[in-house]
Amino acid sequence: MGGVSTLTGLVLNMHSPGYDDARQDYNRRFPPFTPRYINFCQDQDDVQRAVKWAIDHQIPIRSRSGRHSYEAYSLVDGGLIIDVSQIDTVVLDQQTGIAKIGAGAPLLKVYQELWNQGRVTIPAGSCPTVGIAGLTLGGGFGLTSRLFGLTCDNVMGLDMVLADGQVRHIDDQNHPDLMWACRGGGGGNFGIVTQFYFKTHKVADVTIFYLQWPWAELPMVVKAFQNWAEPEKLDFRCVPLLKLTSKEVGQVVVVGQFTGPQEAFAPVLSPLIAEVTPVDIIIRTVPFIEAVYYFGGVKPDMPQFLAHGSEITKFKNTSAFQYQLFGDDALKVIVDHLSKTPGPATLVQFDGYGGAVNLVSNHGTADPHRRGVRASLQYQAYWTEDSQAEAHINWVESFRQAMLPYTRGAYVNYCDANIVDWPRAYYDDNIARLMDVKQHYDPLNVFDYPQGIGRIPQALKFLGGPTPKS
Fold it and tell me: Model-level pTM greater than 0.90?
């Protein structure tokens, strides 16, 4: 690769102003890391130089977009953090409807810019500060996904700096195997994305809804919700989220969004409320961008619509997928764990799947959890004091373990260091192909982290299972 490269852009070391903030993850349960350098790249050239520099100096790389890795995998002691958060422009091509989005753009900026430029959107999450790169590369689910698909399904192409330091444009015609892997294979595995090219969708008004029941009715509500949110029968325009809180908080809640007016939503909702009558109902039709602010917790006048979890930044979350209806045994496990929590900010959330998500086969992208999935489950715990961490982490892991007889797999964007068989949980039968792509584009495992694709062979060997042929 020629001579030794020089880092460009904004480069911080431990003596630089701003270093102490820049070395922390969004999840403050982790103590600050001590990277050798944090390189805030302003453009693609900065990223190229950073990758070449790290290889020349033989120090580990971590790529970072929004700092939202649940296990702080975008940080490393003694290494180089290549941060793309300042590559954040959002430009909509009015003729084609394709949006060029910088890999560091936070979701709220993406939504607002697309709305401003053309009243369009992409299906993505609800947390306003999560980076577009990490969300997209791991799949990406949000409140329009049953209508428009996962975030990764809407990627038409991307620009990526590979392990040789060169930039490649990746799409279905150019490096299609890598394109497949970048649709759900997880961030930080194959290279560093600098730009995405997204298909966008017209949006106008949407209907947001909030339903609440007493905690004592939890089993009845879960059964009714399962029947109502049947993946292939529920109107594709509707994305419902079922929140089961701790007994201490004492609420069972369904929130969600219907992409359309309230009069069209009324017959969709009626079977649920006819089966289990809520004690509180809020239904509002608002402009799409206003719903984004409500679900992101940015608009404070209706906080019950917050969709992405607590604002407390010390947390432990993990996940699983529901493929079968939960019977009485599974419901007993849920009730038991929510009855004995280490604190009030504990819950399990069901994100209703189906619709456009399930129209893609389990091998059509690297994300294998599509057809047959009823819901994505997220077990969540939040706390404020370090002394509370162990009890909350143990509660989440106990809950996940107890539900294993009734669930399958896990979502790579909700990475969890406690999942021992993480390759199969995240990637299922797509493991072998992902390993092939990794070997072809990054045989020396330049892009690595504790649950990275390059570590799959060792992980499977440790588990005593067969290593997929590649």
Answer: yes
Strand locations in 86-185 (E): 90-92, 98-102, 120-121, 155-161, 167-170
pLDDT for the residue numbered 1: 40
Q: Which helix or strand (DSSP H or E) is residue 427 part of?
A: helix 422-427
Q: Which among 347, 370, 348, 353 has a CA at the least distance from the CA of 429?
A: 370
Q: Report the distance separating Cα 127 and Cα 138, nearest Å.
A: 15
C-alpha distances in Å from residue 196, one per residue of 175, 337, 367, 433: 15, 41, 18, 23
How far is residue 422's CA from residue 411's CA, in Å, rounded to a whole number? 10
Is a pLDDT exceeding 70 seen at residue 250?
yes
Mean pLDDT computed over 356-377: 97
Question: At 30, which amino acid appears?
Answer: F
Question: Long-range contacts for 170-175 (Cβ within 8 Å, ≥24 apart)?
Answer: 171/197
- What gap in Å lies between CA 146 and CA 459, rounded to an integer? 33
> What per-residue confidence (pLDDT) applies to 301?
85
**In the prediction, which pLDDT does 308 show?**
75
Distance from C-alpha of 265 to C-alpha of 59, rounded to nearest angstrom: 54
Range scoring the smallest mean pLDDT among 303-307, 376-380, 421-425: 303-307
Locate 325 and state its tokens.
């209806």
Tell me what the mean pLDDT of segment 211-229 comes to: 98
**What are the CA-CA distances from residue 66 to residues 86, 128, 159 (Å)?**
10, 10, 18
Q: Who contacts 384 (Cβ-Cβ below 8 Å, separation ≥6)?
A: 312, 314
219 vs 352: CA distance, rounded Å: 17
List b or e across 214-241, with b for residues whose CB sees 16 or more CB atoms inside 10 angstroms: ebeebbebbbbbbebbebeebbbbbbbb
Are 250 and 215 spatial neighbours (Cβ–Cβ below 8 Å)?
yes
Cβ proximity of 317 and 379 under 8 Å: yes
Tell me the C-alpha distance between 385 and 16, whole Å: 29
